[in-house]
Design brief:
The structure is a homodimer of 349-residue chains. The first copy, chain A, has 349 residues and is α/β, with parallel strands linked by helices. The first copy, chain A, folds into 2 domains: 7-116 and 306-346, ornithine cyclodeaminase, domain 1 (2-Layer Sandwich); 134-302, Rossmann fold (3-Layer(aba) Sandwich). In chain A, 32% of the residues lie in helices and 24% in strands. Chain A has helices at 16-26, 28-44, 115-133, 150-161, 173-182, 196-199, 245-250, 258-264, 279-283, 305-319, 340-346, and strands at 10-14, 55-58, 63-70, 74-82, 96-102, 108-113, 140-144, 165-169, 189-192, 205-208, 215-219, 229-232, 241-243, 252-255, 277-278, 297-300, 326-329. In chain A, the strands form 3 sheets. An 8-stranded parallel beta sheet of chain A has the order 9-8-7-10-12-16-14-15. In chain A, strand 5 (96-102) and strand 6 (108-113) form a beta hairpin. The mean pLDDT of chain A is 93. Chains A and B meet through helix 1, strand 3, strand 4, strand 5 and helix 3 of A and helix 1, strand 3, strand 4, strand 5 and helix 3 of B.
Chain lengths: 349, 349
């Protein structure tokens, strides 16, 4: 007879369905604001973390990556793919799941979908960065690229910074229409624009999140006025950038983890000694963020494992007392740990 | 209302309970023999695979590792920990789970427990190596270290090589008693021995699988007679070895992936130019295995990602037509892939 697995063998699994329930239970904007705070807290203790560039497996069609990190007590990793052609087959460009484990035992303590959670943590991180880098009192943002990330980005900037106006542009008008529809009850004033040039008019924050896996020029230098904050999240792997390099020559650039960003970010276009500031140093008060209202700031965001760590930790905390998870039996747990075979043998019904 | 997730969003998950059902459905020895064949087949096409040393996160208590690989069509990774002190807290020293994904889309296609499966693949790989490296007609093996791996090792050598006699030694007699009990119906003749020295008497194959995370000397040079095959599976991370280095000076050593084995295997004790043969070259007929009956052969096994790939692929194949899995909803799959937010919004019940 099969015996029920012991408690140690069971870990909470958050399906996509349960993640959606959890998000609505908390409220999207509340979640984005709280998560921005958790990410900021982990950036403040950045030096504690094990940091390693992600482990990427590249293919013609895309990339599969593993992103591990640890603060010495909790270990996390995320599995994430990026396959730009997936969309034309009705599949997600990016899907992800992630795990938390105890460093002291190596035992997993949480497994969860992270496709939704990655969109949420990316938006929360963007907004947290903008809190340090955008002009105070910014009320208008441009969103170039209106794909799967767009609404999350807009709502995070609203929740964390008080953004009121969102100006949209995408090469595909259907993507913009989708974003307008989804934000119709958000309280944001949303405008569809006929070009990037028009979209950025009056915007204090410009977010680029396009998906082509190529060197693209979504923004050119002449488009960027004084004082703008650019939140570049689409240029995130080798061969994929969104900004003309002349912008990088005028902007002060802030990054997550330089060894990774110099390979994957907008700054892959620049010399290895192109100056950058690590965002965590701004958060920790060790480096200045925005210095004046004329400075062009650029958050060259590629996504880093510590942000996933923050998001996983936040979900684990928020799950307590809810029923928004299943318990799955993923760890073999014989009564005598040396008796793995005996456990197998006794399971023979 | 929450809608049921589409087929694309669901992947089969094999719990520990279902893995045990699957193993009994196939039969342990049949599985070990078939799996040895699958591992051998993947060793034969070794050059096709993406190979990278595993990504390890070391702590005072142990290590958590991610082991990815790909043959260009299928991607796999395993999460595995090694925490020697876990046993004293009633936990497994090693737990693991793993995943297969399509390279072309990045979408996962299988998630499974791998604590049991790792024990099975390690034993199958040991037996496959011994088929190439041990003396023909070997009938007796010694098993030094009678922990969680022991019975799997013995049964794989029986199923693949026809081993008839197993001689056991462990510093803890209770571990040996456990192994004898578990093998009582196996058809093997099993003998408990009072020392390693006694256990290896007459053994053509010596398997060492002890768990201490330290430089240990389970076997000394004077114990090793001509013609023996040593299957060293316990020395598998930096600072953890089982054999006296003098044995390595007499033996011909075969390894999985030299860049990893030189860091983690028995040969971490040797100079970087210590000569080794890659086992895949023996399997592919590109290098000799055992040359004569007096040669001492050593398989310095640390476990490599391709073996997990083989095991995962085998499980995926064997699952078809069985009910030994649950479907879990780990991939967000909106109707329009760009409309992740709309999916979330529509889930608000």
């Amino acid at each position: 007879m099969l015996q029920a697995p012991s408690q140690k063998a069971l870990i909470p699994f958050v399906s996509v369905e349960n993640m959606m329930r959890l998000v609505h239970h908390i409220g999207v904007e509340t979640l984005l604001e709280e998560l921005a705070g958790v990410v900021e807290g982990d950036f403040r203790r950045w030096e504690l973390f094990d940091k390693t560039p992600r482990v990427a497996s590249h293919s013609r069609e895309g990339v599969i990556e593993l992103m591990p990190t640890s603060d010495g007590e909790i270990y996390s990793f995320k599995y994430v793919n990026g396959h730009p052609r997936n969309m034309s087959h009705g599949l997600q460009t990016v899907t992800a799941f992630g795990l938390l484990a105890e460093v002291s035992t190596g035992y997993p303590v949480l497994l969860t979908e992270m496709t939704l959670l990655t969109a949420l943590r990316t938006a929360a991180t963007s907004a947290m960065a903008a809190r340090h880098l955008a002009r105070k009192g910014a009320r208008t943002m441009a969103l170039i690229g209106n794909g799967a990330q767009a609404e999350f980005q807009a709502l995070a900037m609203k929740a964390v910074l008080g953004i009121e106006n969102v100006r949209l542009y995408d090469i595909d008008p259907a993507a913009t229409e989708k974003t307008i529809r989804n934000l119709s009850d958000s309280g944001l004033s949303v405008t569809a624009c006929r070009s990037s040039q028009v979209a950025i008019e009056g915007a204090e924050i410009i977010t680029t999140c396009t998906a082509d896996k190529q060197f693209a020029t979504i923004l050119t230098d002449n488009m960027i006025g004084a004082g703008v904050h650019i939140n570049a999240i689409g240029g995130d792997c080798p061969g994929k950038t969104e900004l003309h390099r002349d912008i990088l020559l005028r902007a002060d650039t802030f990054v997550e983890y330089p060894p990774q960003t110099r390979i994957e970010g907008e700054i892959q276009q620049m010399a290895p000694d192109y100056p950058v500031t690590e965002l965590w140093q701004v958060v920790a008060g060790l480096a200045p963020g925005r210095r004046d209202d004329n400075q062009i700031t650029l958050f060259d965001s590629v996504g880093f494992a510590i942000e996933d760590f923050s998001a996983l930790r936040y979900v684990r905390e928020k799950l307590r007392g809810t029923g928004f998870y299943q318990e799955i039996d993923i760890i073999a747990d014989p009564d005598d740990p040396r008796d793995l075979f005996g456990m197998l043998q006794r399971a023979q019904g």
